[in-house]
Amino acid sequence: MEIRTRFAPSPTGYLHIGGARTALFNYLFARHHKGKFILRIEDTDVARSTEESTQAILDGMQWLALNWDEGPYFQSKRFELYKEHAYKFLEMGKAYKCYCTAEELEQRRGEAIKQGKPPKYDGRCRNKKDEQGKPFAIRFKVLPGTTLVKDIIKGKVAFENDEIEDLIILRSDGTPTYNLCVVVDDATMEITHVIRGDDHLNNTPKQIMLYEAFGYPLPQFAHLPMILGSDKTRLSKRHGATSVMAYKEMGYLPHALVNYLARLGWSCGDQEIFTIEELTEKFSLENVGKSSGVFNPEKLLWLNQHYLKEGKIEELAILLTPFLEAKGYHASADKRLTDIVKGLQERSKTLIEMADSAEFYFKEDVQYEENAANKFLTKDIQEIFELLISRLDSLPEFTHNAIETIFTAIMNEKDLKLGKIAQPVRVALTGGTVSPGIFEVIEILGKETSIARLKKAVEFIANPAAKGQKTE
RNA sequence: GGUCCCAUCGUCUAGAGGCCUAGGACGGAGCCCUCUCAAGGCUUAAACACGGGUUCGAAUCCCGUUGGGACCGCCA
After folding, report:
1. Integer Cα distance of A264 and A225 in angstroms
2. What percent of chain A lies above the pLDDT cut of 90?
3. pTM for the whole thing?
4. What is the average per-residue pLDDT within A358-365?
5. What is the pLDDT of residues A254-308, one digit of tens each?
6. Residues 352-411 of chain A: which lie with beta carbon within 7 Å of strand B?
7. Contacts (Cβ under 8 Å, ≥6 apart) of A84
8. CB A368 within 8 A of CB A460
9. Residues (288-317, chain A) with CB within 7 Å of strand B atoms
10. What is the Cα–Cα distance from A158 to A202, expressed in whole angstroms?
11. Residue A178 has pLDDT above 80, yes or no
C-alpha cells in the first residue's frame, strides 16, 4: 500500500519552527517509503484564516524545499463534503441537534470551572425533539466505553469515553469544525499515517470515534513531542525568532534549519550532519524520541556555520548578493565575489555576518576603527607602508604569491615578523583588525585600491587630526 | 481542577537488563597552530530527578513521589 502523509497547517500565521518540523517529518517519512506527501490548508475558521498566512506557509515550505506531491487542498472548498458527513450522522442517529447558544455554553462552562467541576457539555439536547426555525449546531454522540489510541511514538494510550464530551461537528452557522474535517479529509485523502504534534493526542480518541462511526479505516498515528523554548514552556515569540522565514532573513541556509530540525527529536546514532538524501534514507518514526525538546539556537547557528563552510562558493555568492544589496552594495556573483566568499566562508556564521565582513571590499572609502588606528597606524610603520606602495606598484602580476614575496622581502630587510606588518596593513586596507588573510585581501582589492588605501593611511599617520575620523 | 504525555551532562541525544568507570554533538574551559579573526587539531569539566520493588545484575522492567509539558472552545 502506498504511504500517504500530510501536513495540515491552519493559515492563521506564518510557518513556525514547530510546524516546519512536523512538515519535515511527514515529508521524510513519505519520501523514505516512496509515498506521497500532501499539503492541506485547514482554513475552516473563516474569521481567523488569511490568504497572507497561506502564502507565508507556502513560502516557508518552498524555502525549506519540503515539496509536496498533492495539494494544497483547502478545507474551505470542501464544506459540502463535511456537511454531508455531519447530516449522515444525524440520519444514523449518531449525532443530534444542539440548540444551546454559544453564550449559554460559555456561561455554564464558567460556572462549572468555578465549582471545580470538569467543564463538560451535559448532553441536554441529546433527546430533544426538532425545534423548527431555531438555529442549531450538530453534536456527535459519544458512546460509553474506552477508546484506545495506538500511537507509533507514544505506544498505547487509553481514554475513558465519559471524559469526552459530545463534540460539535457542525456549527450553528453551518460550517464544520476541526475534528470532523480532519477525519473526513484524512479518510477521503487516504492518509495512512497521521504525523502531528502531541498537542493533538487528546483529540485523537474523538477522531477515532468519528472514523469508527463512519466505518472508515483508521490511519496510523504518530504524535511528535513538542518543541519548547529555553524556559521549557511552549516555544513562542518570547524565545526569539519562531518564523521559518525570519531565519532566511537572518542569513541562514535552509538545509541548516532542516538538519537542525531533523535532529530535534529524532536521532540516528551519533550522526549530526545529514544531507537531505541521508535524512530520507535513514529517517524512521521508531527513532523519534518521546520527550519534548528545547530549541537551541546555538546549535542551529553551528550547523549554519558548518554548511556555510562546506558550501560551494558559487552558490553562496548568489545567496549573498541580496544581503549585500540590503547594505546598499550592488554585487553580482562574479569571480571577484566568489573570491571574497572563499575567504569569508569559514569566518561567518550567517550570510548577514558574511555581508558585514565583506563590506570593506565594496566601500568607497575606509574608515578606521579608533582603537585599531591608534594602535597600528603609527609613525614607525609609515616607512614600511611607503616601501610597500612602491613595490606593489611595480609588481607586474598582482597575485597572492607575488604579494607574499614582497612581504617576505620586507620582513627580511627590516627584520620584522609578519604580524608587525600585516596588522597595520590590515587596518589601512580594511579599517579594522579582523579580515581574511592579508595577501588575499590585497589581491582581491587590487593594485589600485590597495595602493590608494595605503597612501591614505600614510597621510593619516602624518596628520591624524586633519584626515581622521571623517564621516561619509 | 480533570484527563493525557514526558523525565540521561546547561541543551540535543546514544543507550532495547550485563558491552556504562554512561558515548557523541552544541555550548563552556584550556592548550596547539597562526599575519588578525575564524577554521582546524588535542585535552577537559559536566548527566542516568527521587524512593521503593523485580533480578545474580537496572540508566534500561514495574509501582509510587516529585518535576515539567499538553489538552480540556460553535480554535485548529
Report:
1. 10
2. 82
3. 0.94
4. 94
5. 999 999 999 999 999 999 999 999 999 999 999 999 999 999 999 999 999 999 9
6. none
7. none
8. yes
9. 289-294, 296, 298-299, 301-302, 305-306, 309
10. 10
11. yes
CA angle, A198 then A202 then A204, to 5°: 90
Count of residues making up chain A: 472
- Environment class of A160 (CB within 10 Å of its CB; exposed 0-12, middle 13-18, buried 19+): exposed
Confidence band (pLDDT; 50, 70, 90) for A470?
Answer: very low
Q: What angle in degrees, to the nearest 10, is found between the helix axes of A178-188 and A204-214?
A: 60
Are A19 and A13 in contact by the 8 Å Cβ rule? The answer is no
Element (H, E) at A407: helix A400-414
Instruction: Note whether ipTM > 0.90 here.
Output: yes
| Distance measured from the CA of protein residue A180 to the C1' of nucleotide B47, in angstroms | 45
Neighbours of A90 (CB within 10 A): 17
- Nearest nt to the CA of A113 via C1' is B1
Mean pLDDT lowest among A107-111, A137-141, A284-288: A107-111
Residue type, A2: E
C-alpha pair distances (Å), A8 with each of A15, A98, A137, A299 = 11, 29, 25, 28
HEC secondary structure over A108-129? HHHHHHHCCCCCCCCCCCCCCC
**Cβ neighbours of residue A154 closer than 8 Å, sequence gap 6 or more:** A198, A201, A223, A290
